[in-house]
């Protein structure tokens, strides 16, 4: 694989969804990595991505599998092309929901066979931001290495 | 100073015309989470209750009366004052749900008492709650804001109650649960904890919407007031915690739980967490009692892996996601 392609891959990095409360959006802003936001309105067309990415999603609902993954994320992943470019998932949630903490991430990981990379609460602490920023960078490096060797 | 537009008249509520779709999202979440204490088999805890020492029983009953007081405040004062400040009829309706569920929570503690405890011990604990200075102080700090004419600070106080003040109490049933004691009671408390998360999130969201419309000076002022109130509540909460937990040697870990939850309360308001991770490292068994999957390591980045397993890829359709 060409270096240029590897660079391009890293340029995409993250695709995320955030509701009006904006917690996930705020986490992404703190990361400072390039990211594409999925549309908030269900009526808006779902985008197509062209490069590998990590998905960041909040968890909906009050502790049930049903409805845990936001509809906009489902629509985005129902596009096979988008789904196949996903390399991992990061989920937001709240430990108050018990077993359902970050459930959207577990559902997507299982369904799409990608690793659940990390979970954080609300908009994440500074520690979460530091860990994910470092982790995502190293993750892409490893991906690039495994493609070149 | 921004004056909030209150609903000046009552019109029939139309749930098919929303000003803010978050109202319906949260309404649906709260109503689908509805529960009553009767659904939890509390009597299965009788045997376990009898293994506690008299001191442990007294601590538990006191902790639950303290929680009852907070739920009562939220139900009879907190949610109604928020209703007055509501800017959409749907927001008002969500607060009616919150008010009622807080009554269910308060009712639940009495169900625990009548199932497990001796009447005299419970009466003693209620008397204790009326006389305990730190419990009364936290009640007064919140009620003062509820009685003020500052709608933003009313929401701040409400989020601190929902997302911070309960946790000195919630710690104990999680502790018992981690020691395989009072596990049905812990199940009931987890239902309350789940509700409080939605309440704190929603009230915090409405707070942030209103704050965004204020002038930068006013925003700064409210932010300063909020941190000031949190610290005042925190100091009191530490004293309350010591008065309850010193005798069983749990104070230091309860304080970590306070820090962890104070951070989440601030985040619900859109403010940065205050306590560094060095003081929020709650005992993992408590975290596991709160969120059973929290002990599964999903920090793939640290190289400790995740629990996902490779299987065959499945086609995804809307139906598959049970959405």
TrEMBL record, chain A:
Protein family membership: Belongs to the NrdI family.
Task of the protein: Probably involved in ribonucleotide reductase function.
Superkingdom of origin organism: Bacteria
Protein name as annotated: Protein NrdI
GO molecular function annotation: FMN binding
Automatic annotation (TrEMBL), chain B:
GO CC entries: ribonucleoside-diphosphate reductase complex
One BP term from GO: deoxyribonucleotide biosynthetic process
Residues holding Fe cation 2: 102, 162, 196, 199
Catalytic site: 109
Residues reported to bind Fe cation 1: 71, 102, 105
Membership in a protein family: Belongs to the ribonucleoside diphosphate reductase small chain family.
PANTHER family with a match to the protein in the record: RIBONUCLEOSIDE-DIPHOSPHATE REDUCTASE SMALL CHAIN (PTHR23409), RIBONUCLEOSIDE-DIPHOSPHATE REDUCTASE SUBUNIT M2 (PTHR23409:SF18)
Protein name as annotated: Ribonucleoside-diphosphate reductase subunit beta
Annotated organism of origin: Vreelandella alkaliphila
């Amino acid at each position: 694989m060409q270096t240029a392609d590897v660079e391009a891959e890293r340029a995409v990095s993250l695709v995320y969804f955030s509701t009006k409360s904006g917690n996930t959006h705020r986490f992404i802003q703190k990361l400072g990595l390039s990211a594409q936001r999925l549309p908030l309105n269900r009526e808006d067309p779902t985008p197509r991505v062209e490069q590998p990415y990590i998905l960041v999603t909040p968890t909906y609902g009050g502790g049930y599998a049903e409805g845990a993954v936001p509809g906009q994320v489902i629509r985005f992943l129902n596009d096979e092309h988008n789904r196949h470019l996903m390399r991992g998932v990061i989920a937001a949630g709240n430990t108050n929901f018990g077993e359902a903490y970050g459930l959207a991430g577990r559902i997507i990981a299982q369904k799409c066979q990608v690793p659940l990379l990390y979970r954080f609460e609300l908009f994440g602490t500074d520690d979460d931001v530091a860990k994910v920023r470092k982790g995502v960078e190293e993750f892409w490096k490893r991906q690039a290495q495994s493609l070149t060797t | 100073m921004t004056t909030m537009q209150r609903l000046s008249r009552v019109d029939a509520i139309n749930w098919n015309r929303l000003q803010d779709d978050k109202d319906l999202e949260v309404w649906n979440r709260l109503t689908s989470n509805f529960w009553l204490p009767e659904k939890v088999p509390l009597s299965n805890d009788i045997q376990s209750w009898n293994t506690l020492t008299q001191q442990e029983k007294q601590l538990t009953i006191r902790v639950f009366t303290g929680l009852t007081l907070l739920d009562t405040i939220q139900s009879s004062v907190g949610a109604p004052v928020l209703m007055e400040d509501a800017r959409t009829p749907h927001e008002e309706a969500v607060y009616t749900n919150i008010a009622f569920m807080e009554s269910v929570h308060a009712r639940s503690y009495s169900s625990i008492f009548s199932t497990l405890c001796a009447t005299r011990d419970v009466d003693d604990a209620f008397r204790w709650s009326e006389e305990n200075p730190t419990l009364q102080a936290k009640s007064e700090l919140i009620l003062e804001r509820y009685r003020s004419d500052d709608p933003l600070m009313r929401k701040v106080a409400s989020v601190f109650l929902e997302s911070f003040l309960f946790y000195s109490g919630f710690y104990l049933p999680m502790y018992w649960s981690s020691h395989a004691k009072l596990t049905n009671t812990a199940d009931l408390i987890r239902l309350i904890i789940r509700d409080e998360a939605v309440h704190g999130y929603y009230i915090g969201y409405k707070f942030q919407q209103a704050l965004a419309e204020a002038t930068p000076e006013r925003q700064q002022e409210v932010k300063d007031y909020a941190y000031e109130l949190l610290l005042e509540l925190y100091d009191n909460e530490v004293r309350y915690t010591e008065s309850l937990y010193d005798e069983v040697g749990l104070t230091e870990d309860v304080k970590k739980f306070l820090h962890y939850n104070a951070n989440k309360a601030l985040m619900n308001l859109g403010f940065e967490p205050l306590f560094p991770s060095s003081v929020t490292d709650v005992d993992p068994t408590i975290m596991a009692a709160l969120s059973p999957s929290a002990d599964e390591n999903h920090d793939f980045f640290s190289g400790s892996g995740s629990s996902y397993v490779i299987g065959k890829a499945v086609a995804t359709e809307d139906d598959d996601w049970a959405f």
